[in-house]
């Protein structure tokens, strides 16, 4: 049996729009002399992750900082080259495409970054930044591009005069709307949203999330929504995958995951979500210790060093991802 057996969960009798199979991304750690010092080890940022995206859905990828969520998203788009695995899109492996093919395919897969300010050129006006992807993909002439920019600004809730402003003249929420507009302007099929609301105020977060949902319905979009806040992820996602130290440890439909989480790590994430009524009580799952280093991950189950239910087998054997119900799978020795 392979290191991690993946049971596919998704819409019945439907081909996935994007199928990630055994994705791995390892970063070499070098000595103080760089290449002369040789490799000191490998950081397993993403370790054998598999999941599927179906057309029109939102798949939430959640986990604490450093678990490999953002690396997963960037690797799918080949902003970072993968170490191993496949990303099947329209019967083509994105990791095997040539530069020209990849550039063409990238029009259909776009990304919204966590920090909109650093992803926008501070020397360019907003209109120039939004017209740039249209020029790269040779969409329309100069006049057509301006019209498309004006149209997308309106769709994301911005005014026409924002076309002439610079990024530093906008608020954080406005800049994130511009980042979303830049991804949408080439009419993609899939949006990978990497922590799109984590840097925003709570009131602005809800506005951006509602905007994402409205645009998804209007433009028939599919989202891979990456975040560390499971309360945000469960609000927008149809299905959720939980990552820990580069590994996918649980996956289920959102309502089932929230109501009956199986993995102790998922239970801990859900127990940390504040309740709307302070008088309501729930059992809090407290994790001890710090997140282990991905350079030297624990043997067996990578979560056993912090798990309150750890057994001897957890230290020795890697748990296999197995289905516990029709739409729920988990990698945990407690359920074997």
Automatic annotation (TrEMBL):
Q: Which UniProt keywords apply?
A: ATP-binding, Nucleotide-binding, Transport
Q: Which domain of life is it from?
A: Bacteria
Task: Note the SMART domains from the entry.
Answer: AAA
* Keyword Nucleotide-binding carried by entry: yes
Any single Pfam family the record assigns to this protein: ABC_tran
Please state every residue range assigned to the domain named ABC transporter: 18-270
List, in alphabetical order, the Gene Ontology terms for molecular function in this entry: ATP binding; ATP hydrolysis activity
Q: Which GO terms describe its biological process?
A: peptide transport; transmembrane transport
Q: Which family does it belong to?
A: Belongs to the ABC transporter superfamily.
Protein name according to UniProt: Peptide/nickel transport system ATP-binding protein/oligopeptide transport system ATP-binding protein
Q: Which organism is it from?
A: Pseudogracilibacillus auburnensis
């Amino acid at each position: 049996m392979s290191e991690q057996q993946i049971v596919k969960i998704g819409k019945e009798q439907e081909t996935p729009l994007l199928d990630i199979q055994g994705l791995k991304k390892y970063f070499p750690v070098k000595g103080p002399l760089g290449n002369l010092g040789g490799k000191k080890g490998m950081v397993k940022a993403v370790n054998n992750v598999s999941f599927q995206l179906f057309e029109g859905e939102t798949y939430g990828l959640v986990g604490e900082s450093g678990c490999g969520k953002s690396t997963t998203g960037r690797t799918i788009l080949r902003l970072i080259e993968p170490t191993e695995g496949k990303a099947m899109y329209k019967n083509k492996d994105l990791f095997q495409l040539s530069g020209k093919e990849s550039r063409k395919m990238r029009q259909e897969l776009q990304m919204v970054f966590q920090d909109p300010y650093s992803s926008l050129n501070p020397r360019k006006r907003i209109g120039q930044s939004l017209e740039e992807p249209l020029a790269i993909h040779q969409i329309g002439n100069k006049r057509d591009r301006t019209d498309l920019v004006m149209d997308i600004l309106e769709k994301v809730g911005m005014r026409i005069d924002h076309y002439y402003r610079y990024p530093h003249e906008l608020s954080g929420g406005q800049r994130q709307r511009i980042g979303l507009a830049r991804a949408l302007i080439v009419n993609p099929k899939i949006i990978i949203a990497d922590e799109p609301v984590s840097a925003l105020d709570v009131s602005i977060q809800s506005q951006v999330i509602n905007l994402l949902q409205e645009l998804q319905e209007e433009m028939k979009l599919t989202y891979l929504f990456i975040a560390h806040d499971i309360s945000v992820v469960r609000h927008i996602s149809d299905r959720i995958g939980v990552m820990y130290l580069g590994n996918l440890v649980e996956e289920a439909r959102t309502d089932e995951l929230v109501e009956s989480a199986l993995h102790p790590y998922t239970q801990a994430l859900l127990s940390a979500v504040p309740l709307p009524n302070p008088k309501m009580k729930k059992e809090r799952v407290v994790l001890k210790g710090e997140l282990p280093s991905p350079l030297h991950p624990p043997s067996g189950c990578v979560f056993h060093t912090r798990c309150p239910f750890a057994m001897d087998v957890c230290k020795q054997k890697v748990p296999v991802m197995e289905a516990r119900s029709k739409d729920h799978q988990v990698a945990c020795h407690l359920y074997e």
